[in-house]
Amino acid sequence: MAPRPLIIAPSILAADFANLGQDVQRAVSGGADWLHIDIMDGHFVPNISFGPDMVRTVRRIAPETTLDVHLMIEQPDRYARAFIENGADILTVHLEAHHNVHKTLELIRNMGCRVGLAINPLTMIENVFPLLPLVDLLLCMTVNPGFGGQSFMINVLEKVRAARTFIREHNLNVDIEVDGGLDADTAGPSVTAGANVIVAGTFLFKQKDMGAAISNLRYKATEVTSAG
After folding, report:
1. Would you give per-residue pLDDT tens digits along the chain (228 residues)?
2. Which residues carry out catalysis?
3. Which residue of 10, 37, 72, 182 is surrounded by the most CB atoms within 10 Å?
């Protein structure tokens, strides 16, 4: 199977909300492949972020960019339709949330949206193997979900390796995404382990030159594999 394309997905959780339009445009014009939007409900994680209106706002600012919407919420099946109708291209739900996971994944697929499944750092990777044929993307959280700016948990890369091996052995068309603490130092090991979607928030949005930061992240993510 050919290598998966590398995708850089800036997380708008780290954007300047007073200048959201400008920051989204900085990311898009700087070479972002996707935009990552974290939705938190204060129940599944101890923080509250955005709702469907934010997805609609970002869609209006960046009409051609893939919106990668990550639901860190309980009962995601209740809210999936609203996020898809407001512009989500990929909708990711957590294995650990309270819902019938199979039915939620089918609901998202039946609405014509790409399907993602996320797991927290302490969740066993084997728990998602039966569900991988149903999804387009597996998100392995590399921090405990809920807040930006946390340190990367390198032990999660063992799960990434196991997932990539399973995906290859079963000839599945699934991207592996990592989210949390990604920067120029952690992107390379993540890609080497098997990830191909890199979510980065603080590392990218704190830079004045977003284009240079994205280019540097892309280079650092691939330099080890390119060198063999």
Report:
1. 667 899 999 999 999 999 999 999 999 999 999 999 999 998 888 888 899 999 999 999 999 999 999 999 999 999 999 999 999 999 999 999 999 999 999 999 999 999 999 999 999 999 999 999 999 999 999 998 766 666 899 999 999 999 999 999 999 999 999 999 999 999 999 999 999 999 999 999 999 999 999 999 999 998 865 444
2. 38, 179
3. 10
Instruction: Walk me through the domains of the chain, giving residue ranges and CATH numbers.
Output: 7-226 (3.20.20.70)
Is 207 in contact with 17 (CB distance < 8 Å)? no
Among the listed residues 37, 39, 93, 38, the one whose alpha carbon sits nearest the alpha carbon of residue 66: 37
Cβ-based neighbour number of residue 45 at 10 Å: 20
Q: What is the pTM of this model?
A: 0.94
Question: In a 3-state reduction of DSSP, which class is residue 175?
Answer: strand
Closest listed residue to residue 90, CA positions, set 47, 141, 34: 34
DSSP 113: -
- The SS3 call for residue 44 is coil
Phi-psi region of 133 (alpha: psi -120 to 50; beta: other; left: phi over 0): alpha
Nearest to 196 by CA among 137, 154, 113: 137
Enter the tokens of residue 224.
Answer: 């080890």
Q: What are phi and psi of 131, to 5 degrees?
A: -95, -15
Q: Please tell me what DSSP assigns to residue 142.
A: S
